[in-house]
Amino acid sequence: MSASTTSTEVSLGEPLGSVTGKPAARKSRLPVWLLAATLCLVACKKEAPAPAPPPPPQPPPVTQPDLTTPLKAEADFPIGVAISYAGMMNDARYQDVVKRDFDAVTFEYNMKHGAIVGAGGMLDFSQADALVDKVTAAGVAVFGHTLVWYQNNNGDYLRSLATTSAASGPDLLAELNGNFENSGSGTTPATLFQGWFGSTGGSGAATFEKEAGSPQQGSGALKISVTTPGANPWDVQFLNGDWKPTAGKTYQVKFWVKSTGSGSFRAINQTPNAGSPNFAQLTVTPTATWSEVVWNYTAPAAAIQFGFHFPAAGTFWIDGITIRETTQTPVSNTAGAQKMDAVMKDWIQTMVNRYKSKVRAWDVVNEPFTDGTPVLRNGSNSTGDTYYWAQFLGRGYIAKAFRYAREADATADLYLNDYNLEYSTAKLDSIVALANELKAAGVPITGVGTQMHISTTDSYSNIDQMMRKLASTGLKVRVSELDVKAGNGGAAGTSPNAAALASQAAMYKHVVSSYLKNVPAAQRGGITVWGVTDNSSWLYNNGAQFPLLYDKDYN
Ligand SMILES: [Ca+2]
């Protein structure tokens, strides 16, 4: 960094203690440079369009930091960013910014329980794996987010585990050719099997045949050879035209499968128009030998079809389909606790083990406290993607989660993460007390994360107090999800004005200054901003808020 940059640093406002006009040791002047870069990223990019640009001469240019230097190169702690799957996989500018400016990324969604765990507990790592590979190939680290949270779970699956499900009654496909024994009147997909019909659409290409040589049961099985998968999973499909479930009833579907190749397909219940919310599916990955699949599910709607979508190439055989109604009985609290303990352990250790070589830090427990007068989140009334791990496990789930993560990875950083800690002293104190309690009990927690979804009007002194109290635990401290709301009165589609941007820049600066001042260097787990561009932020609201470092045009 040149000496001229030093003068820029000092010109930006009140210097930190170690900064003077003289050239300083690199480390001591880095923070101000970082702030300068942050200030410029925020303030230089988003000039509200002037109604009538004045003619030249223009005012002398303001000296700005050299923004061609990567942001991450100027901090002595990790600078992270939250990323989306679509942005990182498909957008070259997005990739360039992530690679250039950041040490680490947090996936907004793709490592969460609901993203990985499908119906029936089938695990689908395809997006998380692809994203991990893409990011690490770019030389950027991955922060694991998040193992145990009360939202973004496969709640239906977790709730089903705390009940006993017994299949009862007759096989509903017994008279509907579920065993593929009755051929239809021809050999085309539409008439190959009585009661079933196959189709291809879009660019999908497949052949549908009766496998008479080696069915799993009886004299026939379905054989589908997908030569060209379509753009949509349903471009190659095979559906039952006769059986329709009853909305809200639970069913157990069983069938036998095998395949060549490694492709997956999915069993589905859908409305006649695929993609509607009234959709249940199970991803199936067969092997070369016959194996039985069991799928317990609740029918999301009446008048829907049962069948299969084939989004991958390969040859697939299906035979012996049965469907029975099931009855659900809640288990006892003791049985539920045993079950959910095992399920949580398996989930945590599956994730930590899978990404052990590439993910060196995790949010183990996320948002354990309620707001207001904080108590641990708990309850038996979860719906949708909500699931309270404390329902059966009590507050002990937190210590267990950290121990299970540590069993799987002896050296990864393990974080407790929550929000509103700069806003609510009561919640801050609750998190600090919990962290200290865990530490004292020998629980392998190594860090505390503070999300910091803040606005320009948050209290500077509260932020300082939070940094001090979190640091007092002796654990690492991360700012884990930083964004600073700045808008023009909340109206959508506007551009931020200069005052809003200046307030935002000042707040970003204060957060970094406070972090450097109050968190000792050895405890700095890093600062992560919650998104790349304003328009990808959860706060964007069609242009009412501009919370991040880059605008929608990467300026
Ligand atoms: Ca058969």
Textual characterization of the structure:
The chain is of the alpha/beta class and about 550 residues long. It folds into two domains: about 65-160 and about 335-545, Alpha-Beta Barrel (TIM Barrel), CATH 3.20.20.80; about 165-330, Galactose-binding domain-like (Jelly Rolls), CATH 2.60.120. It has 13 helices and 20 strands. The strands form three sheets. An eight-stranded parallel β-barrel has the order 1-2-3-15-16-17-19-20, surrounded by five helices. Strands 4, 6, 7, 9, 12 and 14 form a six-stranded antiparallel β-sheet that branches. Helix 11 links the parallel strand 16 and strand 17 (about 445-450). Helix 1 packs across helix 2 (about 25-45). It is globular, with a radius of gyration of 28 Å. It starts with a helix and ends in a 26-residue tail after the last strand. The structure holds calcium ion.
Question: What structural keywords apply?
Answer:
alpha/beta; six-stranded antiparallel sheet; TIM Barrel; 2 domains; 555 residues; 13 helices; eight-stranded parallel β-barrel; disordered N terminus; binds calcium ion; Jelly Rolls
DSSP helical segment count: 13
Number of strands: 20
Structural class: alpha/beta
Count of the domains: 2
CATH superfamily of the largest domain: Glycosidases
Q: β content, as a range?
A: 15-25%
At the first level of CATH, the class of the largest domain is Alpha Beta
Oligomer: single chain
Kindly state the mean pLDDT as a whole number? 85
Q: What helical percentage do the residues reach? A: 25-40%
Radius of gyration: 28 Å
CATH architectural category of the largest domain: Alpha-Beta Barrel
Largest sheet, in brief, is: 8 strands, parallel, barrel
| CATH topological fold name of the largest domain | TIM Barrel
| Global geometry | globular
Present as ligands are: calcium ion
| Poorly predicted tracts of residues | 1-36, 39-54, 59-63
Strand order of the largest sheet: 1-2-3-15-16-17-19-20
Rounded to the nearest angstrom, the distance between the terminal CA atoms is: 23 Å
